[in-house]
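Data deposition worksheet. Section B asks for the primary sequence of the deposited chain exactly as it was used as input, without tags or linkers unless they were present during the calculation. Section C holds the resulting structure in token form. Section D is free text for depositor observations; keep each observation to a single sentence. Incomplete worksheets are returned to the depositor.
Section A, Depositor: J.P.
Section B:
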Amino acid sequence: MNALFPFAAAGAGHDSDAVPTVLLALAFAIVCAKLAGELVERLGQPAVLGELIVGILAGNAALLGGPDLSALASSETLTVMAELGAVLLLFHVGLESTPKEMMAVGGRAGLVAVVGVVTPMLLGFGVGELMRPQEPWMLHAFLGAMLAATSVGITARVLKDADTLRAPFARIILGAAVIDDVLGLLVLAVVSGIITAAATGTVLSAASVVSIVAKAVVFLIGALLVGSLISPRLFRGALALRGRGVVLALSLGFCFVLSYLALRAGLAPIVGAFAAGLVLEDVHFEGHVQRGEPPLHESLEPLTALLVPVFFIRMGMLVDVRSFASASVLGFAAVLTLAAIFGKLACGAVAPKGVSGLTLGLGMMPRGEVGLIFAGIGAQLVLADRPVVDAGTYAAAVFMVVATTMLTPPLLLWSIRRK
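Section C:
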């Protein structure tokens, strides 16, 4: 069987990164991801689920008598490509909104977002204490951070299909989801910083924790302020360049620089990518579009079509289905999923007058790609010579992400039509 799949026989070392191996792996990933995405979309589900399922099947193909493809997940080249996919994905999510739009939704969406972050975090921490009492509190905090995420893209797609994007409740849901993502990324940055400090033996005083929080907040606010001042001038000055692709080159450069600065500041690079997306508004490159340049969203599509599926497939390949043979892992996954659901339904308690609390909570429920990114970061963090998110915890987290993502579209549509 491995003769048919030469990349299956490669190890996790240098040979797995050979050009032929990567080319075959990419061909497999892109084609299978597209076909699976098309299939699940016809079933009314987001394409990300199909890509994730392809990864799970690929990573566990040997259990079904197929080739052993698990070594691909540890390939350095594919790992870097997958991380670039995550950066581009958060950059694209950031492009869906602007700082002005975030401010315009006002305190109503802000209150919903705060409840949508704090409640799942507390429930996630409690689930960790209950189901994994032997693990350090930092793992429990990371579980809470994973539950705090919200997938803006999945909710926006459902609202668009229901032709309700301009409804007051839809603006509150989307505004709260965007703020939720910002708060979630800050929480991720803080928790990751604490874990990294603990792994290096740094004493975690209260001042150290405050310093990590302050660094995350200052970076994000500083990136938004400085970026908002620089990006309009940058694109106006670039009008002197006549070559095509200027908008894409400048935008990607801006995204990668902020991702690098976030990494240097001790934060996840996706924090910088998200900030870059928020800063770049269509009005900044109107002049380029008027002279024939394609809009940024269109220019990004080929890159995201290549790299984002690689990220989701790799995330799926990290799932060891044998973990679910354990009753404790299945129970953990079920309790974690319930905490994820009820943590977001709690947003309905602060729903503004005239807005359905159930609809609001369901709109905040999907974790989607953001939850997977959080889980992937946890699998890379190491504490006491072991990953913060081990195989069983990662499998439970993926189960939670899939469950909340699959349940949201039908339940949200039902709630909208009921109202």
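Section D:
The beta strands are 382-383, 386-387.
The chain has one domain: 98-311+324-418.
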